[in-house]
Amino acid sequence: MEFLDLVxxxxxxxxxxxxxxxxxxxxxxxxxxENIENPYGIKVRFVFLDAxxxxxxxxxxxxxxxxxxxxxxKDEHAEEAYGYSFEKxxxxxxxLGLGTVWIGGAMQRDKFAAxxxxxxxxxxxCVSPIGTTANSMSIKEKLMRKGVKADxxxxxxxxFFTKNFTAPLSEESAKNLDLYKALEAIRVAPSAVxxxxxxxxxxxxxxxxxxxxxxxxxxxxxxxxxxxxxxxLYHFEQQLLSEGxxxxxxxxxxxxxxxxxxEYIATYKF
Length: 270
Ligand SMILES: Cc1cc2nc3c(=O)[nH]c(=O)nc-3n(C[C@H](O)[C@H](O)[C@H](O)COP(=O)(O)O)c2cc1C
What we know:
binds flavin mononucleotide; 4-stranded antiparallel β-sheet; 9 strands; NADH Oxidase; alpha+beta
């Protein structure tokens, strides 16, 4: 399956069937997680935690039996690396037929941190339950999806630009540049509160990634929306790779005037 089709068939899952997943599948996912790398060369550590044994839960989740917590050393670009690597694992879980959802707010972080042996200098921004998707969503899940308009995304013109921020990129122009699928793969990605904070400026063979900050997503330890950007980087890169293109990540801010509250993150050359 092409990467875009895979990510288009994903949604956040908050209602599970209450059963433990098959050991073989679980071990495949654990092995996969051990070997995940990201373009920043920053290692993200995954811990699989039995919900009952560790008394773990989330107010938005039902039927949960297992959680993955993801941990990274606090450092420059740790959040982007984190978003990239954890999304890679969660997309693999989706490919294996399992449901997941990024949880960055609705959880008792201290409990997950203690169960994951988080040490000094490490951070645990998010976790995800993992399991088989229930046949129907809980009422709470349906309401949550409605609340954040989870089935909707911004149009191309709001998210993507050519050369600078004054020239929006339409779907049609993206098709002409042979970038439609890679940009669409970003558009369908998950983000905290579905804020879709990624903004991308295309310039020749470069895609410059920017973060449009919303208030209330950063604390002393991490910026949740930089994790969203890491997710976007992963989706864009994987779609281009699945089209047989080669890509490389650079961090050199181009000479482009960014609007207030918009921060340069990284550039993919393709
Ligand atoms: C970094 C991050 C943190 C998130 N935190 C939560 C959370 O705390 N609780 C929750 O129910 N969903 C959370 N989500 C899921 C988003 O609400 C969801 O991705 C978005 O609404 C789009 O819906 P979809 O994933 O079904 O496409 C988070 C997503 C991301 C990427």
